[in-house]
Write a structure and sequence with these properties.
RNA-binding; mainly alpha; 374 residues; 73% helix
RNA sequence: UGCCUGGAGAAUUCAACA
């Protein structure tokens, strides 16, 4: 049985749903581990509902089963379901706590996440790193730094998170990022790519090139990062060459290329990419939308916006920015009220639309009614 | 005692930085 499970979990690791199913169905017996593997493989493929139905069907559950389902909900961004499940769990361990805290932080509830972190019966490096990583991706460098300063020991992952935090804050912290990287006892491709990203954010293209050359290896992620670095400098030729040099391409790489054209005034090329790329998603649609906005083609931006099947907050913000950039204050206001959710970017966009167009008194009212940041 | 669960890198929106 353990041998069967080993084979099964190998497919789970690879995210191979069909093989995993096949193995599961041909096993003579199932243990709780086999069932857990099935929850896991559904979760990894983004099928949280299927994961739940496996969970409900299984004859025995252990804490790992609960944690797996919690992870499935959290991964799908369903905070409500995550909370409900967490509350109904018979017991919790570090993994459960870490998962629910991450769910809160990922949804932007940093105060709650931090409070839960303090309430946890015990912490470890992973739970701290989890929260710090959320701060980092939200651009809250100081908060991330403070957390790491209070940790006794950092490992490669924690250091990479800190590197990423520096990277997010652009050129203020490039020096610190570089120093941190130089002091790291070990490095992997992820750390190298985070450093490359730090140089990109700082607009230091020579730094990007030399980091890229020094990297012991390259993969799709680091190549895409380099493409973006070129694109940001308007060096489309090199961006394109980087794309062409990729041994394989995914949706992110395609979107990066699309955006390279869109942000540098090559709208027709951007459209060509958009029409010829193997898949499209919200992000690629938003990228083209912003290209239209940049080129002053607000109507086409609007058409694109309307054609997005599942709009995200970024979709709304992008459309808002499209209006804001061209002084369509009326539309900005209307859209702002219509939006299902708002974040800091939303408010900043609104404010800049108002101030750029002389509505200073209204801007100050808006300033006063902004929600406090945690 | 080593069959299953939690943390890190790339694309899209505002501003800031140059």
């Amino acid at each position: 049985l353990q041998d069967w499970n080993r084979v099964l979990s190998e497919h789970v690791r690879n995210g191979n749903l069909h093989e995993a199913k096949r193995v599961f169905d041909s096993m003579p017996h199932h243990s709780v581990v086999s069932w857990n593997c099935m929850i896991s493989v559904y979760a990894r493929n983004g099928h949280s509902l299927q994961a739940r139905s496996v969970f409900q069907q299984m004859p025995w559950k252990n804490l790992i089963s609960w944690n797996l389902l919690l992870g499935a909900f959290s991964r799908s961004g369903d905070l409500e379901a995550s909370i409900a499940l967490f509350d109904s769990m018979p017991l919790w361990d570090l993994v459960s706590w870490t998962a629910i805290i991450k769910a809160f932080a990922a949804a932007g509830y940093f105060c709650i996440a931090k409070r839960l972190l303090d309430q946890m019966p015990e912490h470890d490096l992973i739970s701290w790193t989890t929260v710090a990583a959320q701060f980092a991706s939200d651009g809250q460098v100081d908060a991330a730094k403070a957390m790491f300063d209070s940790m006794p020991q950092l490992d490669l992952i924690a250091l990479t998170v800190m590197l990423d935090a520096y990277a997010q804050s652009g050129h203020h912290h490039l020096q610190r990022a570089q120093e941190l990287f130089d002091r790291m006892p070990e490095r992997n491709l992820l750390a190298w790519t985070a450093l490359l990203h730090a140089h990109t954010q700082a607009g230091n293209i020579q730094g990007c090139e030399s980091v890229f050359e020094d990297m012991p290896e390259a993969d799709l992620v680091s190549l895409t990062a380099m493409l973006v670095a070129y694109a940001q400098q308007g060096r489309i030729r090199e961006a394109r060459d980087t794309f062409d040099a990729m041994p394989e391409r995914n949706l992110i790489a395609w979107t990066a290329l699309l955006s390279a054209y869109a942000q540098n005034g090559h709208l027709e090329l951007a459209e060509d990419i958009f029409n010829s790329m193997p898949q499209r998603n919200v992000v690629s649609m938003e990228a083209l939308l912003s290209g239209y906005a940049l080129g002053g083609r607000v109507e086409e931006a609007k058409v694109m916006f309307n054609s997005i099947p599942e709009r995200t907050l970024v979709s709304w913000n992008s459309m808002l920015a499209a209006y804001a950039q061209h002084g369509h204050v009326k539309e900005v206001k209307a859209l702002f009220y219509e939006m299902p959710a708002r974040d800091q970017v939303t408010w900043d966009t609104l404010l800049s639309a108002l101030t750029q167009n002389g509505h200073l008194e209204l801007a100050s009212v808006v300033l006063g009614s902004m929600p406090e940041r945690c």
